[in-house]
Amino acid sequence: MNLERLKVSVRGVVQGVGFRPFVYRLASELGLRGWVLNSGQGVLIEVEGDRQSLQNFLVRLELEKPPLASVHSLETSFLDSIGYDKFEIRHRNQDGPTTVLVMPDIATCADCLREILDPGNRRYRYPFTNCTNCGPRFTIIESLPYDRPNTSMARFAMCPDCWQEYNDPVDRRFHAQPIACPKCGPRLELWDSEGRLIAQRDDALHQTAEALQNGKIVALKGLGGFHLIVDAQNEIAVRDLRLRKRREEKPLALMYPSLEAVRNDCKVSELEARLLLSPECPIVLLQRRSRSDQLAQSIAPSNGCFGVMLPYTPLHHLLMRKICSPIIATSGNVRDEPICVDELEALQRLKGIADFYLVHDRPIVRHVDDSIVRIISGRESVLRRARGYAPLPVRVREPLPLVLALGAHLKNNVALSIGNEVFVSQHIGDLETSQAFTAFQKVALDLQHLYGTSAALIACDLHPDYLSTKYACQLTEKPVYVQHHWAHVSACIAENELDPPVLGVAWDGTGYGTDGTIWGGEFLLSEGEGFERVAHIRKFRLPGGSAAIKEPRRAALGVLYEAWGHERVQNRATTPGFEFSEADLAILLQMLARGINSPMTSSVGRLFDAVASLIGLRQGVTFEGQAAMELEYVVDQSIEESYLFQLEDGPPLIVNWEPLLKGILADVDRCESVAAISAKFHNALAEAIVGVARRVGVSQVALTGGCFQNRHLTERAIRRLRECGFKPYWHQRIPPNDGGIALGQVVAATERNLDLKQRAFAEVA
Ligand code: ZN
Ligand code: ZN
Ligand code: FE
To answer: Which residues have CB less than 5 Å away from ligand 1 (the ion)?
Structure first.
């Protein structure tokens, strides 16, 4: 039997309420071994057993918890088993001071929900109801300690009733800092597109529902920023939103009134249901059902998943109960800018997008987006870490020196290490606009300010042109540069608590390599000090550099050029359907021939692009990763066959895709289905991982980088690695995409033999 270890950190009202004895009983009943411990950071649990028992434990932990216990946050990681022989209640070892935690925002609890639906309650239909078990935290805290005067609730004077509850030790709202009621708390207003007041309080809610039913776009000021919301069953309205927001095809998130309603349109497993209803209340990527055709077609075109969440504030609950059908709830921004947090700012920035503004007067101290989670191989995998998770730390085994890591360029976040904890900021976004860069600087300062520290050591990406790298150079003369894929691998190693040696498989779109070329199909071996690039995908040129990222057919051209050479590509006799004009093709071939603006890359992300183009699926994309997403969508999972990669001797080993290319083109000629071609391509990638792992001969294999957001690829690689006797690891708490880079930078920058590592990076500078 395959044993696994489940590590759980539970925060909330879980101490002194019979939680440990409950955990003991539950673990014993399920035959699990391990321990439970009350720590300064909440209750920590480790249990070992088979996969199914561990999943049962997880689900029952919340369903059957003692009545007085309240869970505010529950983070899980599946790790290798250690071999505990019994279950025990452990006693706290007083090892030094623990950092005060800033709690994330918590979804509305059942008690508060009951109150706002009870006509006899003084908080009936009050959209800002909260208690010690739920409500805003991270989004209202200005500084520590967490007391009302240090929050954005300071401006609201408590009424006598709230004051009494706040000071009553047996009340659920004893010391609930954001306590509020209709008499003394924040108020709701509905504004028109010019910011003129239309309605207040409950009337504002009624009119918002009406506007949505009439196909209008409403900007809603929520917990961590603005959403743009629209009726998800109104195709014209959804298209209108896309047009105005300049978001062409990237999937839009949905909010449903209830879990039952979600089940109509999506398949929901037990673990997924747990996540949807959890205090974190993230967007969960769910497999859509074919019968979900009442929904607008343009919500997630050519995508097998819907991003779905349930209401997480009283405001959302009240609105969804009024509408009774799903809405689009997408970030309140233009394109990929950071979300708006302030109503006056929103009037400017969302001008021309929103028809109405549903706002309130509780200031949002910092922007926090909705988090995104996907179940991969039976485990929760956080793809965007923000509301409900940030700024909780990732605990590492060894205490670290103080480091501020500034992350990458896309999906940026920052991280700060204090002792054994690495505090990972909320998702900031792509540092492509001045707003995003401003938000990034703010978060970097904010994180240090919150924890009262100022980091001496600054870590950043090796890419000289990233704004985050430039900022690092402003902060210090000597930033520690960490190679992008090494940061990915370091994050995965840290999260899974692995000891070397580990073979890191870091596959993504783009990262600056130590040789100055673009990496993205890397096999990095960690033996304890730095890394060795033991293998990589065969390189090819990308005509037009970053322009090629928007045009998969350019990647296809680069691959064909590398394989066939100039003449054969030029006469096009055998090139399939990507249509360049004669003039464009001539220019691109010139660029390739001379190597002008055609950087070499080993990127698997770009290989996905090339394949999507060659099989006629995608010639142009409107967002990062789109071609790969569509290839995943069309995959026929029943196909076991695979194209071939050829492994060429190194060092480093070269994973040559030429046989794969031949296979794909032959299948295209035979009019093989895209479903089959995509499957054979995914399978080939998994075989390439197994092939390299065999040659390197290291049993622990860490899968990381944006490509491993692809569930089919990841699950296939996990399965094949296991079948061949390897131990695969992947991300759980921290995103596999560039949202994991900051954590990786912290860990890599603090490795003991720093000098040695810097020398390894010196060749680049
Ligand atoms: Zn509550
Ligand atoms: Zn009050
Ligand atoms: Fe990356």
So the answer is: 109, 112, 131, 133-134
